[in-house]
Amino acid sequence: MILVKATSVLQTPTFKKAVKKLNPNQKKDLDRAVEKLMVNPSIGEQKKGDLTFLRIHKFKMNKQPTLLGYSFDDGALVLELMALGSHENFYRDMKRKK
Q1: Does the predicted TM-score (pTM) go above 0.85?
Q2: Mean pLDDT throughout 34-57?
Q3: Fewer CB in 10 Å around end: N or C, the chain?
C-alpha cells in the first residue's frame, strides 16, 4: 500500500457550520482525525451506490462514535471535508446534498 499525503484541505460550508458548533475538546478530537486523514486519506471507507463520491472515517469525539465524510482527489492531493455527525441520518442527508 502506497501512502499519499494530502497537501491541501478544503471544507464545504456544511462542514464549517458543523465545526463552529463544536466545543474546544471536540475540536481537538476532530483535528486529530483530520491529521490522520492528511497522512493517509485512504483509511476511510469508500461508499457505494449513490455515495461513491464519499469516503467515511469513523472516530471518537468525546467518546461518541462520529462519522467524518470526505472526498480525496489523488491527482491534486486535495482532501475535501464534507460532513460531520453521528450515524443517525448521516447517509440520508449526504444523498440530499449531493
Answers
A1: no
A2: 91
A3: N
DSSP state letters, 5-61: --SEEEE-HHHHHHHHT--HHHHHHHHHHHHHHHH-GGGSEEP-GGGTT-EEEEEEE
Determine the structural domain holding residue 24 and report its residue range: 8-97
Whether 8 shows a pLDDT value over 70: the answer reads yes
Pairing assessment for the beta strands 55-61 and 45-46 based on DSSP bridges? antiparallel
Taking alpha carbons only, the member of 91, 51, 36, 49 closest to residue 67 is 91
Q: Extract the C-alpha cell encoding 3.
A: 501512502
Domains: count for the chain: 1
Q: Please write the tens of the pLDDT for every residue from 52-77.
A: 999 999 999 999 999 999 998 776 66
Question: Residue 84 has which C-alpha cell?
Answer: 460531520
Is 1 within a domain? no
DSSP state of 3: -
The CATH number of whichever domain residue 37 belongs to comes to 3.30.2310.20
